[in-house]
Amino acid sequence: MKADNTMKKKLFCLLLSVTLLTGCRNQDDLALPFANMDGLNLSASSSEEAPDFFASDLAVIPDKLNHMSDPAITAEASLIVNNTDKKVIYANNVYERLYPASLTKLITTLVVLEKADLNDMVTISYNASHITESGAKLCGFKEGDTIKLEDLLYSFLIYSGNDAGVAIAEHVGGTIGEFAKMMNQAAKDAGAVHSNFVNPHGLHDDNHYTTAYDLYLIFHQLVTYDKFLSIINKSEYTVTYKDASGNPVTKNFLTTNRYLKGAENAPKGITVVGGKTGTTGKAGSCLILYSKDKNKKDYISLILKADSSDSLFSQMTDLLKMIK
């Protein structure tokens, strides 16, 4: 069954790649190649069935479902999908090319879960311990520290430490550049062919971009991993590692997710399992969530480029209110 799904996704990737051959430059160019094709049994309702060549475990979002409007949802791109029934509840600008900020950490995590051994011990390099970009969130690891890869991943996802990201990339890929190649291949394998990643953390680079739909595809892949769900469900994490002299260091990292911290309340009947935040000046405020309703159906929701953190979580709550 997994082999069959892999083949379907490869076929899907091939179809998506057709748009790249024409040189995507705007939102309309970024629409899926089958988005406006006739005869594929894609209705205007959110309950359309995916065509046979499409991986049957994914939601299809044709262009006519990609321009929904709600006055409460003002972010540049937004999406909520019933992941159990593969139904689109709300979608707007999901194929627009945008900067992902720390939502980049999702594809980094997918590479780690697919390719690496979480029991590996990682030595923090000079590069990982000397990120100088203004506003970059850091765990505070020092050159020569040794830490378990699993602990780095927890710190990376829960606290969003960019130094953890560099350490992960260098350990798994050898260099940032080689790891970026792994990221882009993993994205393509997931069907996310309208993305390009050049670093593991999402600090700004003009050539580092994605789309809301690509992030949905990547996140959809990640939530099949119990380890990932366990990590994003934690409100905090305590890690103990050794410094360059072999002395133990203990740090506690708090989540950036307001729902898990109790600073934001999900609508009644909705349980937020977890997700990932991201913020840079050019990406704006971003958030992706995995949630469940009272019937245990699961949902993936996403906001890209909200104008503030408060607005981000307010809009996400409004998206979650659309769950019936």
From TrEMBL:
Any one GO molecular-function label of the UniProt entry: serine-type D-Ala-D-Ala carboxypeptidase activity
Gene3D superfamilies (alphabetical): DD-peptidase/beta-lactamase superfamily (3.40.710.10)
The UniProt record lists the keyword Transcription regulation: no
Peptidase S11 D-alanyl-D-alanine carboxypeptidase A N-terminal domain residues: 67-307
GO biological process: cell wall organization; peptidoglycan biosynthetic process; proteolysis; regulation of cell shape
Alphabetic keyword roster: Carboxypeptidase, Cell shape, Cell wall biogenesis/degradation, Hydrolase, Peptidoglycan synthesis, Protease, Signal
Active site feature: S102 (acyl-ester intermediate), K105 (proton acceptor), S160
InterPro entries recorded: Beta-lactam/transpept-like (IPR012338), Peptidase_S11 (IPR018044), Peptidase_S11_N (IPR001967)
Binding-site positions, substrate: K276
Domain of life: Bacteria
Pfam families assigned: Peptidase_S11
Stated family: Belongs to the peptidase S11 family.
Protein name: D-alanyl-D-alanine carboxypeptidase
Source organism phylogeny: Bacteria, Bacillati, Bacillota, Clostridia, Lachnospirales
